[in-house]
Amino acid sequence: MSDNDNIFKKIMRGEIPSAKVYEDDDVYAFNDISPVAPTHILIIPKAPIDGLHELTDHDAELAGKLLVCASKLAKKLGLESHGYRCVINTGAEAGQSVPHLHLHLLAGRDFQWPPG
Ligand code: AMP
Known about the structure:
Structural class: alpha+beta
CATH topology: HIT family, subunit A
Oligomer: single chain
Helix content: 10-25%
CATH class: Alpha Beta
Bound molecules: adenosine monophosphate
Number of helices: 2
Number of strands: 5
Largest sheet: 5 strands, antiparallel
CATH superfamily: HIT-like
């Protein structure tokens, strides 16, 4: 069950502005409004999927498209030489604040491991 009023759905409907960096039939990518790294892009499926926990075998192609999108954007933006990180927060304890699947593409600074 998906929340039709969450902020990412409003962004995709054009009701809230966003700094789009990529779009195709299945995927939308835009700059995070509160970046935690010099590059901080959110990559989301257009389909109403609340989070990674909702994926089934039927979503394998779409899930792959999110990763391929991240890889292509990283190439296009020249992030590969220094490295980048992809994060999908899932559920409250992991820090998911918007109930629509999203992949964070982060780059431009050193990242710690394990993450906080
Ligand atoms: P998460 O905490 O993993 O659910 O990530 C949600 C992300 O959405 C956070 O990094 C927020 O800064 C970002 N965010 C919230 N509202 C907007 C918005 N209107 N435009 C762009 N990014 C947003």
